[in-house]
Specification:
Blueprint lengths: L6 E3 L8 H10 L3 E3 L3 E2 H4 L2 E6 L4 E6 L5 E5 L7 E6 L3 H11 L5 E6 L4 H4 L11 H14 L4 E6 L4 H12 L5 E5 L14 H10 L4 E4 L5 H11 L3 E4 L1 H5 L12 H14 L4 H15 L5 H8 L3 H7 L3 H10 L14
Parallel strand pairs: 1-2, 1-12, 2-7, 3-7, 7-8, 8-9, 9-10, 10-11, 11-12
Antiparallel strand pairs: 4-5, 5-6
Pfam family, one: Dus
Protein name: DUS-like FMN-binding domain-containing protein
GO molecular function, one term: tRNA dihydrouridine synthase activity
Length: 333
């Protein structure tokens, strides 16, 4: 995988499922990350070829939850991101998905307690030896590119020191979010100069992340930092057509296409509703008639019907054998 001159969809919890990734790619994303998935959870999964949908599903053995879903159409661009604090577990997960993804990424930047309390995400930033162990173990045993994503440390010098240590492991690229753990996205601006310090110190590609809010910001952050590529998160949730060089599409149309793809790929209803709520909150409010109707939806079929996809659902049923689509997670709806 090439990491220069790319526009990248960042990993986002409950957002980065197959429908959202496919939509981002349709609008111009070159590389798409799935959401961070914890190693313990993935190790409880089995790989299932879903001939009904044309996907590869990693399904939790007990709950039958689809933990990760992908397809051939995205195989050359999708990145699997893991949350881990153990090299052996991490390698087991990587080995299980390596044949179905383009690259494997280790999350070292998430500041949320669900990640850091398990020693994962940003908790790894203070453990350079463990970082080195995880990344070198992956590099020795995988044939696909290995990358990781970090945040700025307390000082730029500390960040550069860690980045140099990471570079020695042989990773293909390093993504840097230009905020510290204590910083908050909606309050504290990203420090592009901190990313620049890292870029100046390394020879491997650096992916810049932070405050890419419109298409022109891809080039602006690359020019300001010298980064090889740029990554977008929240602006993509608001309107994933941010990847279009021609400009944004009307958010209602983007939302509708997202729902269509969720129906097509049998997306988890909770993920679907979460992403739609994020879109609605940006452009309207959850107390609107639409917001209240969405809250009442219990199944993916309910969501599809709310947005006018009854006929499309019937067409899919006919094309897939005439029976109603059944998800592994039907009991969770």
């Amino acid at each position: 995988m090439e990491y220069r001159g790319k526009h990248i969809l960042a990993p986002m919890v409950r957002v980065g499922g197959l429908p959202f990734r496919m939509l981002a790619a349709e609008y111009g994303a070159d590389i798409t990350y799935g959401e961070e998935i914890v190693d313990h959870k993935m190790l409880r999964c089995e790989r299932v070829v879903n001939e009904f949908l044309g996907t590869v599903d990693f399904v939790e053995r007990t709950t039958k939850e689809v933990v990760f879903r992908t397809c051939d159409a995205e195989k050359e661009r999708v990145v699997f991101q893991v949350g881990t604090a153990d090299a052996v577990r991490c390698l087991k997960v990587a080995s299980s998905v390596a044949g179905d993804v383009a690259a494997f990424d280790v999350n070292m930047g998430c500041p949320k307690s669900f990640s850091t309390s398990g020693g994962m995400g940003a908790a790894l930033l203070g453990k350079p030896e463990l970082i080195h162990d995880i990344l070198t173990t992956l590099r020795r045993n995988l044939s696909i590119p290995v990358t990781c994503k970090i945040r700025l440390l307390e000082t730029y010098a500390e960040t550069v020191e860690l980045a140099r240590r990471i570079e020695t492991t042989g990773v293909a690229a390093l993504a840097v979010h230009g905020r510290r753990v204590k910083d908050r996205t909606h309050r504290d601006p990203a420090q592009w100069d901190g990313i620049q310090e890292v870029v100046s110190a390394l020879s491997i590609p650096v992916i810049a992340n932070g405050d890419v809010l419109e298409y022109g910001d891809f080039q602006r952050i690359e020019d300001a930092t010298g980064a090889s590529s740029a990554m977008v998160a929240r602006a993509a949730v608001w309107n994933v057509s941010v990847f279009r060089p021609e400009g944004l599409l009307f958010w209602e149309d983007v939302k509708s296409e997202y729902v269509r793809k969720c129906v097509e790929w049998e997306n988890d209803v909770h993920w679907t509703k979460h992403t739609l709520r994020e879109m609605i909150m940006r452009h309207s409010n959850l107390e609107s008639a639409e917001g209240k109707a969405l809250a009442r939806c219990k199944t993916l079929g309910d969501v599809g019907d709310l947005y006018g996809f009854q006929s499309y659902r019937r067409e899919l049923e006919v094309s897939r054998g005439g029976s109603e689509i059944v998800s592994y997670t039907e009991d969770c709806f």
